[in-house]
Amino acid sequence: MAGAMDVTIPSSGSRRSQGRRKRMVLSTSQLRVLQASFEQNPYLGITTREELAQEIGIEESRVQ
């Protein structure tokens, strides 16, 4: 009966590590710019996100 429970399931650990990004560390000035923008409008459009990203030197996908 013990043999019936011996089932090997592939680990999803490698998939998980590929799908997650590392945490970003922002400088104080970058953080100030982002906070000021989100205080004015918490729902930024793609154009605004692109401009902000370029201004502070990060990827647009990191401006959420």
Overview of the structural elements:
By secondary structure, the chain is mainly α. Helices cover 48% and strands 0% of the residues. The relative contact order is 0.12.
Helix content: 40-55%
Largest sheet: none
What is the percentage of strand-forming residues? under 5%
Question: What number is the mean pLDDT?
Answer: 82
- Taking Cα atoms only, what radius of gyration do you get, to the nearest Å? 21 Å
The CATH topology of the domain at 24-64 comes to Arc Repressor Mutant, subunit A
Q: Topology as H/E string? A: HHH
Distance between the amino and carboxyl termini: 52 Å
Task: Give the number of helices.
Answer: 3
Structural class of the secondary structure composition? mainly alpha
| CATH C-level of the domain at 24-64 | Mainly Alpha
Overall, the morphology is globular
The CATH superfamily of the domain at 24-64 bears the name Homeodomain-like
Give me some keywords for this one.
64 residues; Arc Repressor Mutant, subunit A; globular; mainly alpha
Quick summary of this structure?
With 64 residues, the protein is mainly α.
Protein topology:
Layout: H1 13-19, H2 28-40, H3 46-56
